[in-house]
Amino acid sequence: QAYLSYSNIAALTHLAAKPGWEITRMLDDIKIWTREEGEALSFKVEMQVKIPSHLAFSLLSDFTLRQQWDRHFLTCEVLQVVSEEEKIYYVTSSPTRGHESRDFVILVSQRQPCKPCEPYTVAVRSVTLSAVPPSPKFSRSEVLCAGFQIHSSTSGSCTVCYFNQMTSGVMPYLAANLDGSSKSIEDTALECIKFLE
């Protein structure tokens, strides 16, 4: 478990630091970036939020609150509290056009910054739990690497960056969005800002 949680944080930090991010859309408080590498497509959503970074961190690290702003989350329950900084959740998501409902078993690791210049981190990856085998009602999907980095801007505002490295399992949610026919990422980001503020 210690290795999994370390690699969870490390994978997100590594993804965030990679070069080659291309900006695909800019709005007032939101920027959307994408990065392609082989079969993997990653995206980053940068949001300017008018609350202190520690508050954004506490709201975003509790995944049971996520249904309040992310319509892709149908249900979310805590399966296991591994430690103060790690929890395992079971998430179900609503079906998209032509695709069945999906479910995920995810480890969420949270870290406070060690130095003032470092961000707050909430990292997410799929794990396997024998207590939660795949169900015939859902298509079990995998999160490779996702999560938030929260950087302090001023005492009352922060920059929240959401990252997700896509697999084919999550692609249906994004395919429509990236060709511009739907604004699912943008809408979710706006809901997230509204929820935080």
From TrEMBL:
PROSITE patterns: START
One GO MF term: lipid binding
GO-annotated cellular components: cytoplasm
Residue span(s) of domain START: 18-165
Pfam families the record matches: START (PF01852)
This protein's name: ACO12 thioesterase
Species this chain originates from: Onychorhynchus coronatus
